[in-house]
Amino acid sequence: MSAKSFHAEFAWLGGREIASDVLIETEEDRITKVTPGTTPLPGAKRLRGLTLPGLINTHSHVFHRAIRGHTQMSDPDFWAWRDTMYGVAMRLDPDMLYQLALATYTEMALAGITTVGEFHYLHHAQDGTRYSDQNLMGRTVIQAANDAGLRITLLDTCYLQADIHGASLAGVQRRFDDGHWQGWMERVDDLVDSPMARIGAAIHSVRAVPREAFRPIRDYAERRKLPLHVHLSEQIAENAASIEAHGCTPTELLDNEGVMGEATTAVHATHLTERDIEILGSSGTTISMCCTTERDLADGIGPAIQLARAGSPLCVGSDAQMMIDLWEEARAIEMNERLISGKRGHLRADQLLTSLTQSGANSLGWNSGRLEQGMLADFVTVDMASPRTAGAFTGDPLSHVVFAATSADISNVFVGGVSVVEAGRHQSISQPGNLLESAIAAVFP
Question: Hey, which of 3, 56, 58, 99 has its CA 20 to 30 A from 106?
């Protein structure tokens, strides 16, 4: 890959201000130089609008995209919604999963996402037996993400029991089961990094993994230098079960087993005690907020602002794909807190942008999320003349974009300096809507 240069009309280089006339030079898949206030080099690609580091989606269950619109009025709570989701999980074979994942990751690319963290537990065949390639389903979603132009961290998830008391997995949950944590490790040993894919580890939850497995999984992730993610306190029922079984909250339980720390990301973290917040913040555990899913499922509003003040970096995820718009995920962190507190101005626009970019990249183990020398050349451009962004330069353009832009305002997406989206159109998937339609129809024959 030869050297390339890009000339951004405006760019966010960190901090509270934006820079103008920014020259971004690349070699192979890396940024080699960033120079604001300069004229374009001959042959430099002009980027009209505001250029930012690529957006990072730290928490995705890609196959959930099929049930968007199927549950909003029919399923009264998380547990009923889960039954609908399990019906889809039971039907998917590798070919169906590939088509659905390719279409969904294409939707993500069009929304400005350059890297996705796939919290993956759909490991085995419908009856729970292993495919001849025991990582076929994981490799399938990696291939789909890469074919859509995205980097992916496959957060291969350990899922071993049906409840916190160790009930056996049955029905569709047999597809998730590796038998024991040693079996999960043996399978994950066969997965390795590539230039467009990283392997990560995940503990599904304190409900789905026995306590004695937490530390070995933590040690395994540390040994292999894998990012480690875990669903945490998404439901009040999860907290109650943990207190009944172990005499402490899920946060305390995981911390007692050494899971919390700077290499760990806790997903949701919705129902926390003051002590939980202190543990997460003081350990530097990252928090992945998935606000559109949490509000759709009536899960509650997590204490994101308190966590950030305590020391936890924040990032965001599209989770169950109720919508794929990371602008909405990020601003909901601030807007939710405004509703609770009756006050405005808890996190600045640049802090929310950091959650969308640098903090997300750190959570997934990628050297990206900033427009500076040595970073991966993953960046996106926002159209600043759309009906939502027009007028931004009469005020604070960064705040205008963070609080008003949508995924529809992404005009260009580059991953490793390669164009994935140009003028709002995906460069290799010509009709993404039709692709989604056919992939979802296959799931609901």
Answer: 3
- Quote the CA–CA distance of 252 and 247 in Å, as a whole number: 9
Which segments of 91-239 are extended strands (E)?
113-120, 151-158, 197-203, 228-232
Distance CA 155, CA 176 (A): 13
CA–CA distance from 312 to each of 278, 358, 437 (Å)? Answer: 9, 13, 39
- By three-state DSSP, how is residue 259 classified? coil
Task: Please report where in the chains the tokens 């005020």 appear, as a residue.
Answer: 395
DSSP state of 171: G
Beta strands across the sheet bearing 30-35 = 30-35, 19-27, 4-11, 45-53, 379-382, 410-415, 418-422, 425-426
Question: Which helix H or strand E contains 35, and what residues bound it?
Answer: strand 30-35
- Evaluate whether 279 touches 260 at the Cβ level (below 8 Å): yes
Residues 408, 327: contact at Cβ < 8 Å? Answer: no
Domains and CATH numbers, the chain: 4-53+369-426 (2.30.40.10), 57-364 (3.20.20.140)
pLDDT along the chain (445 residues), means of 10: 91 97 97 95 95 98 96 84 93 98 98 99 97 98 98 98 97 98 98 98 98 98 98 96 98 98 98 98 98 95 98 98 98 98 97 98 98 98 98 96 98 98 97 97 91
**Phi/psi of residue 191, each to 5°?**
-100, 135
What are the C-alpha distances in Å from 225 to residues 215, 220, 409? 15, 8, 36
